Amino acid sequence: MNKTTLFCGAATTVVAAAMSLGACRPASGSQDADSIAFAITVYEDSAMSDSCEISQRLLVEYPVAADHSVAADSIRLWLRQLLADCAYPQLYDDAPKPTPFGGSPTDVEAMTRYYGDAGMHQMLEAVKPDPDDEFQWVPMGYSNGLEATVQVQTPRYVTYTTGYSIYTGGAHGAYIIDEETFRKSDGHHMGWDIIDTISARPTLNALIIEGLKEYFSTPDDPNGDLLNEELQFMELIENPDADLMSIIPLPSSAPALTAEGVSFVYQQYEIASYAAGLPSFVIPYDKAADILTPAAKELAGM
Predict the structure, then answer these.
(1) What are the residues whose beta carbons fall under 8 Å from the beta carbon of 149, sequence distance 6 or more?
(2) Is 156 helix (H, G, I), strand (E, B) or coil?
(3) How far is CA 290 from CA 206, 220, 254, in A?
(4) What's the whole-model pTM score?
(5) 25 vs 37: CA distance, rounded Å
(6) What is the C-alpha separation between 18 and 56, in angstroms, rounded?
(7) Cα–Cα distance between 86 and 80 in angstroms, integer?
(8) 256-257 and 52-63 strand pairing
(9) Please, are residues 255 and 194 in contact by the beta-carbon 8 Å criterion?
(10) What domains appear along the chain, each with residue ranges and CATH number?
(11) Backbone phi, then psi, for 64, in 5-degree steps?
(12) What is the pLDDT of residues 199-246, one digit of tens each?
């Protein structure tokens, strides 16, 4: 079974409060003159509120401040929004959002610290003991985490992997994995324009089925027949005898270009039960030729 690597810090105790900057490095897979240099910043903090432990961990790999290329600027803008959305968890409906970070867009260390501190404050407020509520429920812990790291850089594109986790009490946390591709020539954030989802839909369906069957395959089930059970469990089909080739939906997360091929990830509960994880697979480029758009083929060097 292929398994998606999860960033699952939801149940992990964070004991240090630190902000550190890693060494600058070019991302793997690229030594061209137009390579973007990246650096890593890490925010970690924890606190106790009565019996509830609060923790936050943010790890962001970002273009160095000296790089003012259009692609670097586009990635920094995306990271800014990602931090604002993920580092500040909305734990209750009327929770206010923080004022947007007002510093330099190239100062990602300060930006990460700003949203990390705002998230810690919001989580502490959410579990603050209320002396007027004798039935107040307080979880054993709140935990929030984000990782955004470069998966691959080529002369034509950069692909990030992002993992977001949150735990607010209960049986388990929630996890989201995304992959994001940026075109280096103009900084365009590629999404579903990687795939021809209209004319190539039948071929794409067949490749998705093949990838999912590989994900769900085990030594006892080499054909991945568990896929049928999972889809029926999630009520994605009304007729148990329906042709799965015609009904499997596309994932909510857009595909991404990787070193091996086109990567797809389904989120928790999207097409399968929690125990199934995040069904994921890569369609090799030699199989993906008929489903890629001309722009994607150019980026992939096809």
Answers:
(1) 40, 59, 61, 160, 161, 162
(2) coil
(3) 12, 33, 17
(4) 0.82
(5) 5
(6) 11
(7) 10
(8) unpaired
(9) yes
(10) 9-190 (3.30.565.40), 194-300 (3.90.640.20)
(11) -65, 155
(12) 888 899 889 988 988 888 888 877 777 777 777 666 665 565 666 556
User: Could you tell me if 292 and 300 are in contact, meaning their C-beta atoms sit under 8 angstroms apart?
Assistant: yes
CA distance 146 to 162: 7
Tokens 């009565």 correspond to 50
CA neighbor of 201 nearest in space, from 249, 161, 164: 249
CB 56 within 8 A of CB 45: yes
Both structure tokens of 66 = 């000296």
Q: How far apart are CA 208 and CA 273, in angstroms?
A: 18
C-alpha dist (Å) from residue 269 to 141, 192, 234, 244: 23, 21, 8, 18
**Close Cβ partners of 23 (under 8 Å, ≥ 6 residues apart):** 39
The position carrying tokens 């009304």 is: 238
HSE (CB half, 13 Å, CA atoms) of 119?
29
Q: Which 3 state secondary structure label does DSSP give 152?
A: strand
Distance CA 54, CA 143 (A): 6
Contact 83, 113 (CB under 8 A): no
User: Model confidence over 2-39: pLDDT tens digits?
Assistant: 333 333 333 332 223 333 333 344 444 444 557 899 99
Encoding tokens for residue 99? 């004022």
SS3 state of residue 178: strand
Distance, CA of 232 to CA of 43 (rounded, Å): 41
Distance of alpha carbon 11 from alpha carbon 81, whole angstroms: 25
The tens digit of pLDDT for each residue in 117-156 reads 999 988 888 777 777 766 666 667 788 899 999 999 999 9
Q: How many residues does the chain have?
A: 302
Residue type, 146: L
- As given in the structure block, the two tokens for residue 243 are 């042709």
DSSP assigned state of 125: H
